[in-house]
Amino acid sequence: MPPVETIVPHGGTALHGRTGLSAAPVAVGARDVPAAEKVLHVLAAFERSKCWSLGGLARAVDLPKSTVHRLLASLCTVGFVQQEQDNGDYRLGPRAWGLGGRSDGTDTLVEIAMPTLRGVRTEVGESTFLTVQEGSCARCVARVNAEQEVAVLISQGASSPLHLGASNTILLAFLPQEERRDWLDRTIDDEAARDRIEQELRAIETAGYAYSSSQLTPGAAAIGVPVRGASGRVLAGLSIGAPAYRLSRERALELLPILAHAGAAISRRFGFRAFEQDGR
Hints:
CATH architecture of the largest domain: 2-Layer Sandwich
Order of helices and strands: EHHHEEHEEEEHHHEEEHH
Low-confidence stretches: 2-31, 100-104, 275-280
Number of strands: 10
CATH topology of the largest domain: Beta-Lactamase
Strand order of the largest sheet: 7-5-4-10-9-8
Oligomer: single chain
Number of helices: 9
């Protein structure tokens, strides 16, 4: 998890630290439009609204519903668009985030994940956090603080080393092997330390979770799991953080099924299907 500002009584104070496509209305139905241009018009429509129904999007781009449905199906397959499970609406997917920079994707991630973070906090009674990789560091993009007299509070937007803390090491452990090793080579000078960290990361990757205690701040502990996108790549780390005396390794493992279920639920919203990815 990212840097802990302090472990404070409840009520204390902690530091707080779009796509670039044109959104101009388009009408393309009256002329013969190449398929690629139709795709771009569909994507550009998401600048006007984060979510579209099939019918609403078809009207917005002035194309037949059947055509828009076919385009959306293709975009969903490659992760540029995703379909909401509850109402069938469409929104930009993780692979579209890079079209306009990191912030739009992070906003979407936070919007989708926040109800789950709140639910986990309510169920376990401890603070919950969401972190993403940002260069060689991890950044906390969302948090829900515990309603306890003593709680772990961190600043949203805070950055910390990628190899320290449960939510951070999840991000590093699930990087492709070459990227992970490259990060270690660039960041950790001592060869023995690099090898030790690499072994720890492999163990985290195999286990599917990370536990840390007093790595970033004395007296704070956390357990983290991955949040994945449609391709299976990890988008974020989801974690529970608490004072170490309330979150021993044994207690953390008791809470792991709740946290893992939450991570899987967010991942499904981004199109990840575990059985399909595993080939089963």
